[in-house]
Write a structure and sequence with these properties.
Blueprint lengths: L4 E6 L4 E8 L2 E9 L11 H23 L8 E7 L3 H18 L3 E5 H7 L12 E6 L4 E6 L5 E6 L5 H11 L7 H8 L22 H17 L3 H32 L3 E5 L6 H14 L2 E3 L3 H4 L4 H12 L17
Parallel strand pairs: 1-4, 4-5, 6-9, 9-10
Antiparallel strand pairs: 1-2, 2-3, 6-7, 7-8
The chain binds 5'-O-[(R)-(carboxyoxy)(hydroxy)phosphoryl]adenosine (KG4) and zinc ion (ZN).
The site of 5'-O-[(R)-(carboxyoxy)(hydroxy)phosphoryl]adenosine has 18 residues, from helix 4 and helix 5.
Cofactor: Fe(2+)
Keywords: Acyltransferase, Cytoplasm, Iron, Metal-binding, Transferase, tRNA processing
Main location: cytoplasm
Length: 335
């Protein structure tokens, strides 16, 4: 395989990932998703750390095997430094540091939010710099002007809940299983998005706010179920469609404003919420009107994965941006 050969590790939340990238080409990408959190309706940090501990070695071993290499072929070891859960980041961080030390190879510390964006460079078609990226996941909502692989600028972000959280929390109010985003998406396809209206959380500028939506849905459901206990069951598809329509409209409004103000016409989507069918359709429609070129990576590269960490590490390796053994996880690492 071509060089540099980089092993990347991702453990910032509840997915344990390892990937091998050789000369910018992905050789393997393995993810172990933690099921333990479902019964709690959200990620339990302590349980996530323990599960990473159990999954990491098998996941790394599988990634090396699938790539057809051994650890001695590696030119560098990369790991997500943050943002994320401290305990989870520590498990991956200590593993990567130890491996880099044992192999006497460079260590690369990667920003998870940059990695979501640079996932676009794993496969064709790739955007060209500069472009706009909307990163929407369970933990983050950011609108970013991507100047280059190493220089990015946050234009706007959520001031409270992330877009994925807005899906999951409102889905929970409707009695859907966790994480509710995909369930809400599926039900919304049969619903009428115009029957129920909820507040759009677009702030002045490019910021987002989704906590008002959650509160509005909560009070609306309380009021209606007091009159009719079957209200949710009888109107489930329309409720889902209304909520999804509101979240998508909020995202699109800020995206439209940012594109107009920056003059950028390449629009990229990243994060797990990129799977949302309503968002994809609305974005394609908007793109046709505005003349945008839209980029959406395949789903495996939208949700948390180590391939995107390896891609980011590749750019850093080329630029000589190498970490030392003194690097430590940063749960609040800025873009
Ligand atoms: O990127 P990701 O796997 O994890 C984080 O880093 O947060 O994103 C997970 C989020 C969850 O909130 C999930 O409900 C949401 O993405 N999600 C969706 C859909 N698929 C995943 N939300 C709406 N519609 C979907 N189809
Ligand atoms: Zn993520």
């Amino acid at each position: 395989p071509a060089h540099p050969i980089i092993l990347a590790i991702e453990s910032s939340c509840d997915d344990t990932g390892a990937a091998v990238l050789a000369g910018g080409e992905l050789l393997s990408n393995v993810v172990a998703t933690q099921k333990v959190h479902e019964q709690y309706g959200g990620v339990v940090p302590e349980l996530a750390s323990r599960a990473h501990q159990q999954h990491l070695l098998p996941v790394v071993t599988a990634a090396l095997r699938e790539a057809g290499i051994t650890k001695d072929d590696l030119d560098a070891v990369a790991v997500t430094q943050g943002p994320g859960l401290l305990g989870s980041l520590l498990v991956g961080g200590m593993f990567a540091k130890t491996l880099a030390l044992a192999l006497d190879k460079p260590l690369l510390a990667v920003n998870h939010m940059r990695a979501h964006i640079l996932a676009h460079f794993l496969r064709d078609p790739k955007p060209t710099f500069p472009f706009l990226c909307l990163t929407v996941s369970g933990g983050h909502t950011q609108l970013v002007r991507v100047h280059s692989a190493l220089q990015m600028e946050i234009l706007g972000q959520t001031i409270d809940d992330a877009a994925g959280e807005a899906f999951d929390k409102t889905a929970k109010l409707l009695g859907l299983p966790y994480p509710g985003g995909p369930h809400l998406d599926r039900l919304a396809r049969q619903g009428d998005p115009t029957r129920f209206a909820f507040p759009v959380g677009a702030m002045p500028g490019y910021d987002f706010s989704f906590s008002g939506l959650k509160t509005a849905v909560l009070y609306f459901l309380k009021k209606e179920t007091a009159k009719n206990p079957e209200f949710i069951a009888e109107n489930l598809a329309d409720l889902c469609a209304g909520i999804q329509h509101t979240i998508v409209a909020t995202l699109l409004k800020q995206l439209r404003r940012a594109a107009a103000d920056t003059g950028l016409t390449q629009v990229a989507l990243a994060g797990g919420v990129a799977a949302n069918s309503g968002l994809r359709t609305a974005l394609q429609q908007e793109a046709a009107v505005q003349g945008w070129e839209v980029f959406i990576p395949e789903f495996a590269f939208c949700t948390d994965n180590a391939a995107m960490v390896a891609m980011t590490a590749h750019f850093q390796f080329e630029a000589g941006d190498v970490a030392t053994q003194l690097v430590s996880p940063d749960p609040r690492l800025k873009l």
